[in-house]
């Protein structure tokens, strides 16, 4: 299951009524990256600093902490 509907996003990028900034992971499909990279209003950053041994170790812990916090009514990393 994808979090972003790429085809819908491409439609909005074509219209120019949205800017999309994307820090992609290695799991992102090559075809999707090619589609998105055609638009000046789509900024794609490569994966940075997530592939260290420390980050790989902490990733599952952070995921579980975030889910637990959400279920307990105090979500982490809230963006206003």
Number of domains: 2
* Low-pLDDT residue spans: none
Mean pLDDT: 87
Strand order of the largest sheet: 1-2
Compressed to H and E, one letter per element, the order equals HEHEH
- How many individual β-strands? 2
Strand content bin: 5-15%
Class per helix and strand makeup: mainly alpha
* Alpha-carbon distance between the two ends: 25 Å
The main β sheet shows up as: 2 strands, parallel
Q: Number of helical runs?
A: 3
Shape: extended
The level of helicity is 40-55%
Rg measurement, Å: 16 Å
How would you describe what is shown here?
The chain has 80 residues and is mainly alpha-helical. The chain has two domains: 1-48, no CATH class; 49-80, no CATH class. The chain has three helices and two strands. The protein has helices at 6-15, 30-36, 53-71; strands spanning 20-23, 42-45. Strands 1-2 form a two-stranded parallel sheet. Helix 2 (30-36) links the parallel strand 1 and strand 2 (42-45). It starts with 5 loop residues before the first helix and ends in a 9-residue tail after the last helix. The mean pLDDT is 87.
